[in-house]
């Protein structure tokens, strides 16, 4: 019986070590998920993959491929052109916070949050139906999957690309 307990404890410990050894960065998780192929291509084009693979912490509001497809025709292709790298970088930095913000940690009611694109703000509103994020254009994204844990932060999957703009994000 002692042998069985020791073997079982050893197996549990080995599984725990394997789980911690297999922790992935935000970039690795996104690269391994087909829903984010456009986002991954954009992150690579903007040379942000190394940064977002770093120690963090980061919160990434990750638009799906469908969110990118909903942009006006030609927008993604234009942003991916080398001469538009600065604009692409700004759009991507608008989707990143330098804190680990879990959905349970969002303050109640509409509140401003400062993304890495420090000239802009997001308005994040948790509610009974989930979390919404308003951008600088006055449009709102829904968090469709919250709290995908990474070893350097968290990913919240959203259904719209957040865009900087001149309109205040919170209403």
Description:
With 171 residues, the protein is an alpha+beta fold. It has a single domain (25-158), classed as FAS1 domain (Roll). Helices cover 34% and strands 23% of the residues. It has seven helices and seven strands; from the N terminus they run ααααβαααββββββ. The chain has a seven-stranded mixed beta sheet. A hairpin with a 2-residue loop joins strand 4 and strand 5 (130-134). The longest helix has 20 residues, at 2-21. It is globular. The relative contact order is 0.18. Residues 1-22 have low confidence and may be disordered.
Silhouette: globular
Number of helices: 7
Number of separate domains: 1
| Major sheet characteristics | 7 strands, mixed
* Strands ordered across the widest β-sheet: 2-1-7-6-5-4-3
For the record, give the distance between the C-alpha atoms at the N and C termini, rounded to a whole number.
Answer: 64 Å
| Low-pLDDT segments | 1-22
CATH superfamily: FAS1 domain
Number-wise, the strands total 7
Mean pLDDT: 85
CATH architecture assignment name: Roll
Radius of gyration: 19 Å
Helix content: 25-40%
Please provide the ordered H/E string of secondary-structure elements.
Answer: HHHHEHHHEEEEEE
Q: What is the CATH topology assignment? A: FAS1 domain
Q: Roughly what fraction of the amino acids lie in strands?
A: 15-25%
CATH class, anyone? Mainly Beta
| Broad structural category | alpha+beta
